[in-house]
Design goal:
Elements (H helix, E strand, L loop, with lengths): L1 H22 L2 H8 L2 H5 L6 H28 L5 H22 L1 H7 L4 H23 L6 H5 L4 H21 L5 H21 L16 H11 L4 H13 L3 H5 L3 H10 L44 H22 L3
Helix pairs in contact: 1-2, 1-5, 2-9, 4-5, 7-9, 7-15, 9-15, 10-14, 12-15
């Protein structure tokens, strides 16, 4: 049955991509093709996200088939064959969804775990935020869309998948190195675009109006100009959701402080006997590097009404989503 599931995923991906290619461009069809690697590399997409994609495609084909059949009926044209073909395509998508959520899907993708739920939630959050941001911004927000006009849906899906992968890496990280690497990647991309913009390539700048890359000026610049409030809103929401974790996950200047500090890093000393009874102070940036270093498991995240592991999953969902969104849109 796993072979049948792979075949259905491939066929459903190709037929849905062909549908979008017929009525749009290759960029509209490309997101449907992202399901192809998941048929052969199950870790590429979490199982719930793939199931949602197949279910959404089934609803798309059902709506499209109903519209075409109704149109042909109104004009007195043959419609039965069309309804049977598109109905079969819809049933293939529903069958793939059913197999994915039952035994064959469990055998191919593994049991439905908290990690897969976190990865799915992260992808949905990243995709939703970027869709809203692109819709509300009067200029091309995503860098890829500036080079390839009309490709924003492809980049949104790509960053959503990247966010899902980051959340999985953070949850599986037992050495505390993933956070530093993704943080450095974001900062390098941010300052790389700034340097290219200063060199005369204005396409790498958000509006073409430069200011010093200091977080305080993210607020001061738009207030002075009276426009361009997207970045202040993004900064305010990220501070509200993550608090001090801004300093350990999202600050593009702090990333280099982290890299320099790691050059002289020493092995952590044993925890004192009183450590399990002490709460982190105000200087704690919620980086989480101490969690895998505690041999007794006394350290963890907490949130009212949630167990420790669930609180960590919620926190990772938030920071991974914001990281992916920042990587997609944060520019001077």
């Amino acid at each position: 049955m796993t072979v049948l599931l792979r075949i259905l995923i491939v066929l459903c991906s190709l037929t849905t991509a062909a549908h979008f290619l017929r009525f749009g461009t290759l960029w509209d069809a490309a997101p449907a093709l992202l399901a192809l690697p998941a048929a052969f590399f199950p870790r590429f997409l979490p199982r719930p996200l793939l199931a949602l994609g197949l279910l959404g495609s089934a609803l798309l084909w059902a709506e499209h088939g109903t519209e075409l059949a109704t149109l042909r009926m109104n004009f007195g044209l043959p419609w039965m064959r069309l309804a049977l073909i598109l109905g079969a395509v819809c049933l293939a998508h529903l069958g793939a969804t059913a197999l994915l959520l039952t035994g064959p899907g469990k055998k191919l993708f593994g049991p439905l775990s908290g990690v897969q739920v976190v990865k799915t939630a992260t992808a949905l959050m990243v995709g939703g935020v970027l869709l809203m941001a692109v819709d509300k911004t009067p200029f091309p927000l995503l860098l890829g869309d500036r080079f390839f006009p009309g490709s924003e849906i492809f980049w949104i899906c790509l960053f959503a998948i990247y966010g899902a992968m980051v959340s999985g890496w953070l949850l599986a990280d037992s050495r505390g190195k993933v956070r530093s690497r993704i943080w450095t990647l974001f900062s390098a991309v941010f300052f790389g675009q700034l340097l290219l913009g200063l060199a005369g390539f204005s396409i790498f700048l958000m509006t073409g109006k430069l200011h010093l890359p200091v977080p305080a000026l993210i607020l001061a610049g738009p207030l002075y100009r009276g426009e361009g409030f997207f970045m202040p809103i993004l900064l305010g929401v990220s501070l509200l959701l993550t608090g001090p974790a801004w300093c350990s996950y999202l600050c593009y200047i702090g990333a280099w402080d982290d890299r320099l500090a790691r050059l002289a890093a020493r092995p952590p000393a044993p925890l004192p006997a009183w450590a399990p009874r002490v709460r982190p102070g105000l200087s704690c940036s919620l980086c989480g590097d101490c969690l895998p270093r505690c041999p007794h498991g006394h350290l963890g995240y907490s949130f009212p009404g949630l167990p420790r592991e669930r609180a960590r999953q919620v926190f990772v969902t938030l920071v991974a989503s914001l990281h992916a969104v920042f990587l997609a849109v944060a520019r001077i």
